[in-house]
Amino acid sequence: MFDNFDFSNFWEESVYSRKEYISDPPSDELIASVEQELGYKLPASYIWLMKQHNGGIPFNTCFPVSKPTSWADNHIAITGIFGIGREKAYSLCGELGSQFMIDEWGYPAVGVAICDCPSAGHDMVFLDYRECGPDGEPKVVYIDQEYNYKITPLADNFEEFIRGLVNEEDFYS
């Protein structure tokens, strides 16, 4: 998992990320409890990454796309990655987590919201379980509220999504 991927400069460490995103590494019991609450089995690559660093803000926050979104013509941007837990606002079962985005913002129930975006709720990144079912390996999609909840495929799995994140300077230099 994540063979030859260097995580040494992956995460941005800040007071904000510690306050809103980062939790202690999840126990197996917490993972099972969160999966039960969400109704989906989390991908092994996501669990592995959260056991190393449970949520946070990565340095590379952009993912290239081939069709325009409400954010940009050639990429989407994320703010942070939700950790496994309940106590941080931006965690899977937190105050502003996955179910909140579905219930309060009207996002389609395709799976689990895993990343928020700079638009403050107007677009999100989800694990998409529509093809694989609740116990399968989900794809990663971008859902754009501003475009009538249009779903844009990003990656075939979570690891591919993480490997595909690039720095915003790649688009603005």
Automatic annotation (TrEMBL):
The family database entries (SMART domains) matched by this protein are listed as: SMI1_KNR4
Q: Which residues form the Knr4/Smi1-like domain?
A: 25-164
Under the heading Gene3D superfamilies, the entry gives:
SMI1/KNR4-like (3.40.1580.10)
* Recorded superkingdom: Bacteria
Question: Pfam families per the record?
Answer: SUKH_6 (PF14568)
Protein known as: SMI1/KNR4 family protein
